[in-house]
Write a structure and sequence with these properties.
This protein is an all-alpha fold. The protein has one domain. It is 79% helix and 0% strand. It has 13 helices and no strands. Helix 2 runs antiparallel to helix 9, helix 4 crosses helix 8 and helix 5 crosses helix 6. The longest helix is centred in the C-terminal third of the chain and has 29 residues. The protein is globular and about 45 Å long. 48% of the residues are buried.
């Protein structure tokens, strides 16, 4: 199917997705103020799973029976696409500002390019892709700082590396999704989020039983609800609604917008983003641009 011109719906959807996904980091920061990261991750997962399951049924799409092997795919997608990254990001944002977290997550498309090289035969690295990855990674080095790389055990550095590890989990999820059996996207979303919620339960139980007592504030509770409804459930519905119509090339523009939105929201919330953070953002975006140019040249060459 040839993608349609983006039009008002396409551009509107892209802008809304950028706001939803870029704003998620600010909600996470509010959530982990008084809640354990595992609780924040589980809360958004469980709420989104319920919303998307109801949405799927309303669209006359039903989850497969439990003996269907697609549940194994749902479990893998839920682990790498939701449980792991949501938990890692929440842990990292206990000390990392939301704007910096958003910039770090800008490496996700570059991580996908590297993972695809080793797994997908049609997605091998070329000079443009390799250069884009190296430039983007240099942005991460710039953001974390030479002092942090030398220290290796500084709290902020370790927290930032946890967020960076989340990009690798997202890359694994993207590769798995391309290899799974053909299934309606809404069913995949509902099934994987349901599995992700179940996979997140053990860590939640551990934190509640053995962790420090939690006294959740109303602000943190509302933040978790917002995370489940907005950047998790609603964003998934919007993404599925426009992605196939406008094509992958257009929807990939979100990779440029999310870290910028996250940084701007962090700035509006009073977070101090120094010159280094803005330079790192520019370097990462340049890396994404060059890597995408390599992908486009491969398709047209």
């Amino acid at each position: 199917m040839t993608p349609d011109k983006p039009g008002l719906k396409g551009w509107g959807g892209l802008i809304l997705l950028a706001l939803l996904w870029g704003g998620a980091f600010a909600f996470i920061t509010a959530g982990v103020e008084t809640l354990a990261p595992s609780v924040v991750a589980f809360g958004r997962l469980a709420l989104a799973a319920i919303i998307l399951t109801v949405w799927a049924v309303a669209q006359r799409r039903h989850l497969p029976p439990l003996n269907d092997r697609r549940w194994l795919w749902f479990a893998a997608l839920g682990l790498f696409g939701n449980t792991l990254p949501f938990t890692l990001i929440a842990i990292g944002q206990q000390t990392v500002p939301s704007g910096v977290a958003g910039i770090l997550m800008g490496m996700t498309p570059l991580a996908i390019i590297m993972a695809a090289h080793f797994v997908l035969p049609g997605e091998r690295l070329n000079a443009w892709k390799g250069a884009g990855f190296l430039i983007g990674f240099s942005g991460i080095v710039l953001l974390t700082g030479p002092a942090a790389l030398a220290g290796m055990l500084e709290t902020d550095f370790l927290a930032q590396m946890l967020i960076f590890a989340a990009t690798l989990a997202y890359a694994t999820n993207a590769i798995l999704y391309q290899r799974m059996p053909e299934t309606a996207p809404i069913v995949v979303a509902a099934g994987s989020l349901t599995c992700a919620s179940v996979l997140a339960l053990p860590l939640v139980a551990w934190d509640i039983i053995a962790g420090a007592p939690m006294q959740p504030s109303l602000n943190s509770i509302l933040a978790v609800i917002a995370l489940g409804v907005l950047p998790t459930a609603l964003a998934t519905i919007i993404y599925m609604g426009i992605a196939r119509k406008v094509g992958a090339a257009f929807i990939a523009l979100i990779n440029y917008a999310v870290p910028v939105v996250a940084a701007m929201i962090g700035l509006m919330l009073g977070e101090a983003l120094g010159l280094t953070a803005w330079l790192a953002l520019g370097v990462i975006l340049l890396g994404i641009f060059i890597a995408r140019r390599g992908a486009q040249r491969r398709k047209t060459g």
